[in-house]
Design a protein that fits this description.
Chain lengths: ~475, ~300, ~280
Amino acid sequence: MSMSPGWKRTLALVAVVGLVIGACGPSATTAPSTAAGPSASAAGPGGSTGAAPSAVANACGDAPVTLNVWGGYPEMDAVYKKAGEAYTAKHPNVSFTIFSTDLRGFEQKLTTSLPSNTAGDVVIRTANFLARFIDQGLLAPVPADLEAFIKGGAYSETDIKDATYKDKIVGVPEFSSGTALYYNKDFLAEAGLSGPPTSMDQIWDYAKKLAKVDGSGNVTRSGISLRLSGQGSGVAEKFWILLLQSGHELVKETAPGSGKYAADYNGPDGVALFQHYVDSLRDKIDSPNIDHDAKAFETKVTAMFAREPWVVAEIATAAPDLVGHYGSISLPVADLGATETMYVPTSAPNAACSWDFIKFLTEQDQQLLIPPTAGWLPSRKDLDLTAFLAANPGYEGFLKKPAGLKVSLTPPIAEFDELETKLATHLVDAYADYANLAGKPDKIQALLNTWADETNQILAANGHGA
Amino acid sequence: MIHPVRAVRAVPRRTWLRYRFVFLALAPIMALFFYLRVLPTGQAIVMSFFKWELIKPAEQFLGFDNYINLLKDENFRLAFFNTTIFAVATTILSVLLALLLATLIARLVGGRIGAGIELLYFAPVLVSVVPVTLGWREIFNYQHGILNSLLAGIGIGPQPWLSDPTMTLVAVIILSVWKQLGYNMIILLVGMRAIPRLYQEAAAVDGASAWQQFRHITLPLLAPVTLFVIVITTISSYNVFTQVYVLASDVQGAPGKLVRVIVYDIFENGFRFFKMGYAAAEAVYLFLIVIVLTIIQFRFLRGSRV
Amino acid sequence: MRPNRLVPNTIRWIVIVLLLIGGIAMVFPLLWLVSTSLRPAPELLLVPPRLLPQHWTLDNYAKAFASAPLLLYLWNSFVFAMISTIFIILTSTVAGYVFAKFRFPGNNFLFMLVLATAIVPFEIYMVPLFLQINALKLVNTQLGLVLPFLVLSYGIFFMRQNTQTSVPDELLDAARIDGMSETGIMLRFVPRLLGPAISALAILAFIQAWTAFIWPLLILNKPTLFPMELGLSQFANTRVDFGLTSAGAVIAMLPTLIAFLVLRRRIVEGITLTGLRG
C-alpha cells in the first residue's frame, strides 16, 4: 500500500549518505597549484618582440594543470578543444575543460563567478561587456610581450581598438564578427538584376523589386528582411548598422577623446532610414507576419538580409539546397565590428600557463581552425584565407571589403547596453505602428527626438552627457 | 494517561510538551529554510534601498529612490500590466480546466483509460521549457504553423500569434496554460481521491444527485487543495519568464514580439544594465502584489476542516 | 473515488472521446519535438512543415551521446534529483503536518514567511545565495549544488493543505489515545494517510530538480558534475542544431516519464483504511 516505516528509514539513510558523499566529493575548480613556474606577474615569460610569440616551454611547469576555458559561443568549443589537444601534445601535463553556454547564461555566470574568484582560467568575451569587471580589477593585465605582438601588425586597427579600454589593451583578440548582406542569386536573376547591390539606395531599390505579394495582399517574399521585433538590443543594433551607411552612429562622441556623447540618430538621415522601414512595411516590401532573419532566408521567403558570418555554416547544414545559389556582399560604406577577446581572471591560479595557452591560440594554425570549425572569422588579419574563401564563397561579403570601409565599434561606456535596449523597445513599438507613421516625416522626427532625449538623459546620468 | 499530580501543574504540561515537540520538529527545517531562502531574499530587499551594481558592494544609499523611479518607469508599468493580465487569464483557465479534467477523470472515466488520459495531460509538465517553447514557435508560425492551418480549416483567417502585441500575450497564455494544466490536474486528483467516499455515499443514500454531491460535498472538502492550486498558479504566473524570453530571442531564426513581464524587466535591469538595486525594488513590488493576492485568496477559500 | 456508475455509458464514452482529442492536442508539441529529433538537419526547415520526417535518422541521438558524456550527466541528474526529492518530502511532510495540526504562537507568521519566499523570483536572491554558498567554500561541489533544493516552500504549503484535507483531528486523537508517541504519529501514522499526496509531491520535486538549469549553471564549473540540462546546453548550439537539442530534450524527458509512471500507482491509490474511517 503506502510506505512502510522501514522503507522510509532506508530512504532517509540514503539521503544522508548521499549528502555526506557530496560534501566530501570533488571540490573547488582550482587545479593543484604549480610549485614551479614563473609567478603571475604582468611581465610574463620573457619572449622576443618578434612577429610571432613562441610558447615558452616551462610556463605551465611540470605538475599536472587543468585549464578551464570559458566561452559564450558553444560552436567555438570544438576550436578550443582542438587547440587544447594540440597544446597538450606539447605540454603533456596540461589538460583542458571547456565550458560554454548560451550568452545570457554565460554573462550571468561571469557576473557571479568573477567577483567571487571562482571563474575559469581563460575567459573569452568582449571588452565592452567586461569593462565593469576590468574596473574592479578582476581581470589580469595583458603581459607585455603579448601586448607588443598585438600591436605588431597581425591585427587590424579595429580589433586593437576593440580590445582597448581606457587606452590600454586589456584582452587578446580571438575571433571577430561583422555584418554582410546575404542575397539570393536566383531571386536577383529572376528580377533581372545583374549583380548584388553596392549602395544603400540600390539596396532599397532592389528590395522593392524583389518583394512578392499574393492575391490577398499578403507578402509571400520580403525584398529585404528587416529586424522588426525581438528582445534585448538587437532591433536597435540592426538599425544602427544601416544608419552607419549614412555616416551616423547611435551615439557619437562630441569631440574626439572627450568622453562625452550625444544621440546621433535623430538627424535627417536617421529620419530617412526610419522612413524606409515604415514605408517598406506600408508598401509590402516586408511584413511583420512573415518569417524573418536566417530562417526566412533559408526557407526562401526573403531575398536579402544582413547578419553575421555564422549563417554560412548554418546554411551548409540546414539548407544545403541553397548552397551555390546565394552570396554575400559587404555593406557599402561601413560595418559594425565586434571582437571576442581572451582574458585571464586575476584569481586564476596558473596565470602564466593561461597566458601561454592564449598565446598559443593566436598562432596562425590555430586561428585558421576557426572558420571551418565554427563558422566565425579569426581576428588575425595576416592570414591567407584565399583557399578557404574559394571553398566557401558564402564568406565573400566578410572577407572582401571595399577600400575605405569604416568599421564602427560599441562605445566604451557602461550605459550603452541600457540606452541601446531602450531604443530597441521604442523602435519595436514604432514599427508596429507603421500605418500611422509611413509618409509622415514630421511625426517621425518628433518621435526620434523624444527618444534622443531619453538617450541623452541616460548618458548624462552616467557622466557622459554632452 | 492523566496523571493526577501532573494535571495540576501551573503551565499545562501538555501545552509545554506540544510546544517542545513543535520546536524540535520545525527548528531544523526552519533553520535550513532561513539560510537558503529568507537570508538571501532579505539581503536582496535591503539592497533595494541602495545603488547596487552587482559586482561590487553597494555604495550609495538611495532611500526610496528606486521605488519612486520605478513608478515613473514606462517599462515597469507595462510589465505590471502585461503580467497581471497574463496571471489572471492563466490562473482562471488552468484552474477551471484542471478542475473539470480532474472531476471527469475521477468521477466519470476511471480505470486504465483514466490513467492514460492523466498521462496525456501531464506530459507537458515533464519536458524542459526551452526546447518545447522553440517547438511552440513553429506551431504559432504565421504562414505555416499548425494553429493557423487549423483555423483556416474552420474558416478563420491566420492570426499573427507572434507579431501582434495582443496576440503574443494570448500565445504566451496558451503556452503557459498548456504547461500548467497537467500539474494542477494531478494535485486536484490527489485531493479529490482523498475525500472519504463515506461522505458521498451517505449523501447518495440521502438522495443527493451527482451534481449536488459535487457541489456540496466534494467542492467544499476540496477547498484547501483548490486554494493551493490557485495560489501556486498565481505565484508562478507572476513569475513567468523563460517562455517569454525564448519566444522573443533570435535563436532559431526570427524572434517573436517581446511581451514585457515583470521578471523579464527584473532580469534586464539587474543582469543587463547592472542596476541590481533597482531590480530588487522591482522584486519587492512583485512580492507585495502577489502576497496581497495570496492573502485575499486565503480569506476567500478558507479550508473547511473535517 | 470510484467512477460514478449512475451516469449512462454513452455520456461516459462521449466524454472519453473528447478528453482523448484534447489529450492528443496536449501532447502534440511533444510529438513534434520527438519528430524533430528524428530528422536530419536539412529537414528541420521544411516549408510547409511535415509532421513525420521523410528520412528517419538516429543521427541526432548518436551525436548527442558522442559529443557529451550523457550517461554521466544523467547519473548526476539522478543523484541530485533523488537527494532533493527525499529531503523535500521529509521536510515538507513534517513542516506541513506541524503547521496544519498544531496551534502555537507564530504558526501563521512562519507559514506566511514560507509562502512569501516562494513568491520572490529566483533571479533576485540567487546572487546573495551564491555568495553565501561561496563563503562556505561549496562552489563547484555536489553539496553546494543540492543545498538550495533541500526545501521547497510549495512542498510545505502542499503538505499542509493535504494534511488539512486528509487527516481528521479525530484520527489523531484516536492514535494518541492508543498510546502512539507524537513522533511516531508524525513519522509513521500521518504519512500513511498521505500516500498519494507524498507521491504527487515526489514527482513534482523530482521534475523540478531534473529540469533545473540556472542554479547548476552558476554553482558548477567542472563538467563531470553537470546535471542533464546544463550538460545539454554545453554542446547544443540551439541556433544550428535544433535536431540535436530536441534529441537532448527527449532523452531528458524519458526518466521523468518513467518516474511518473512508477509513482502514478501511488498517486491513484486512495485511502482504503475503511476500518479507521468508521
